[in-house]
Design a protein that fits this description.
The structure is a homodimer.
Chain A lengths: L1 E8 L2 E10 L4 E9 L8 E7 L7 H6 L3 H7 L2 E5 L37 H16 L2 E9 L2 H12 L7 E4 L9 H11 L11 H7 L6 E6 L5 H5 L1 H11 L4 E5 L6 H19 L2
Parallel strand pairs in A: 4-5, 4-6, 7-8, 8-9
Antiparallel strand pairs in A: 1-2, 2-3, 3-5
Helix pairs in contact in A: 2-9, 6-8
EC number (chains A, B): 3.1.2.12
Catalytic activity (chains A, B): S-formylglutathione + H2O = formate + glutathione + H(+)
Function (chains A, B): Serine hydrolase involved in the detoxification of formaldehyde.
Amino acid sequence: MERIEHRACFAGWQDVYRHESKTLGCTMRFAVFLPPRAQGKKLPVLYWLSGLTSTEQNFINKAGAQRYAAQHGVIVVAPDTSPRGDDVTDDPGYDLGKGAGFYVNATQQPWAAHYQMYDYIVSELPALIEANFPASGARSISGHSMGGHGALVVALRNPDRYRSVSAFSPIVAPSLVPWGEKVFGAYLGPDRETWQQYDATALVRSTTEKLPLLIEQGEADEFLETQLRPHLLRDACEAAGHPLTLNLRPGYDHSYYFIASFIGGHLAFHAAALNS
Amino acid sequence: MERIEHRACFAGWQDVYRHESKTLGCTMRFAVFLPPRAQGKKLPVLYWLSGLTSTEQNFINKAGAQRYAAQHGVIVVAPDTSPRGDDVTDDPGYDLGKGAGFYVNATQQPWAAHYQMYDYIVSELPALIEANFPASGARSISGHSMGGHGALVVALRNPDRYRSVSAFSPIVAPSLVPWGEKVFGAYLGPDRETWQQYDATALVRSTTEKLPLLIEQGEADEFLETQLRPHLLRDACEAAGHPLTLNLRPGYDHSYYFIASFIGGHLAFHAAALNS
């Protein structure tokens, strides 16, 4: 593991690391914000999963989360969105291959060789963080769009490993929308039954432990009706008796201006769960 | 004038416009943040001048200023850093030509045809803003690096037009450092006397009106000793009896992580002057 960026930020440090991932079989980068309180004290960690075409840079450059993470004493870890490198399979589309790992374990070739993002996020990355940083072991998870889908799936399948989950503009039912149908078909094959383990709306029906769940959605989001469809998750949560706070925000779109406007509330939400 | 971006942000709007600049003889873009209070009320304006290689996008994407501008009820205008377009002279270096207008009126060819950024910032842009937005006419100005230099020069030469001036990591004495010597030689010619009108350290010695002046400087800034040299302005302010608050911040570098960490204090500083 090698530190490749180290920048003072809100009295803490915004760092970026490079490491060899065994799960993914390639060199990966992740960003870590260490709040000022990290000196000498173990702190909870919020994982942030980014959306299509992103790297570890987008969130740390644009969301303005460091201010709130410093205030609440939360470490924030932002991984990349897919395996990387010259020997990793890619696709010309922005919504498949590099930058579009979709946080699943691919079972189909040529993808299965490297595209194991689910295991990377659930197991390898937290183990690495907790071995090398002042992390207490308390975890929460959030993300945007494809990363909102990832956060929901990871938390709903592992409620014992996370204290809370939130998402901005998530793809809540990937099995039913074009982005998900394309990538699940490629990564998981044509059997739609296998897709359900990565579909938050399907998962919420069967989960027994019920984590605090917060969703932020802009009503002027250009992908709202075609790809995101938050009402499908709302209906499933109501049917399953799963708690959900769904904030619909008039006028806001799919961009980081939306995330920046409400990330403070999400940090407060996670800090309350992490520090309880 | 045409609006080309319009995004909800902190209950206001982060917009980008395109217009034909008579001063620069080309199509220019600028960003405008309109805080929520802008509806039906005239508000003061903070102008932000960006640094080398930037466009109107960098500050609005990375600084997180919208939160504070919304809170204080200040419109924030961020122009581009040079004339643009295929018929505008450029240079292969990142520190001359496009993205490096240095906020001067060039007198030397081939630059003089378009590189009139000083007049654009002082006259054309404020007139455009005050004719088309709910701007009260009260102005302040700030900027980063090359834009910090620009803010200081524009305010020191026009103290009647601005209420306050601040800068992050400014080039305070361009006549004496490599960046300034290169571009002033190109834009203004070899007579160093003509450079003094664009050198904040020279200007502060002769200004009579004394604006509130705040400078933020990271002590781990990679350009601190070679290009920025804030002690030259501090010494000139002391000799001239000009007020100056110079905040030296240990550990911080030249990046937007530094700006984001302290932009809230600068918005508060300008809001106090603008609303007094």
